[in-house]
Design a protein that fits this description.
By secondary structure, the protein is α+β, with helices and mostly antiparallel strands. It is built from 3 helices and 10 strands.
Amino acid sequence: MYQKLMTALAGLTLSAAALAAPTAATPSATPQVELKTTMGDIVLELDREKAPKSVDNFLAYVKSGFYKGTIFHRVIDGFMIQGGGYDEKLKGKPVNKPVPIESNNGLSNAKYTLAMARMGDPNSATSQWFINVEDNTPLNYPGPDGSGGYTVFGKVIKGFETVDKIKGVLVDDKGIFQNIPVIPVSVKSATILKTPIQPKQ
């Protein structure tokens, strides 16, 4: 099982209490983003306190409409579902400058958490992210190879059933892409919720 996880980990790169009401000057420490996908909706709660650069980076892509039309291009049941980089034609989109790694923030790559995908360089994360579908402690700081691990910057608070549906789709390899859904799973929209929801306890 460990060998399988390490093989999957090697591919986790960029594939070829009550708070005061936030204002523009004091943005929410836990903004929420709704992803509407072709398999259902997912609401993510971001942790700006623990991963400010990663959260602001993700929100910049959300606000620009970047994620509309992107697909989950890598799905491994028992590991994670990854998106944020390619459209249905498997074309990449221009990205912003990389965000510094923030993996040493005390957050764990636990089931249903949201983390930044990156290349071998720890500071190479741009638009791509993944949702852990199991507890993936080998991805935590400092990482099994000492490379820094993967930055967790949020978690799923609604739409767990959608994540579970996506992780179970039929996948295949296509060109440089491995574990890509045979029937594309697309993000129809990504929006910041103006009225946050209360996560289920």
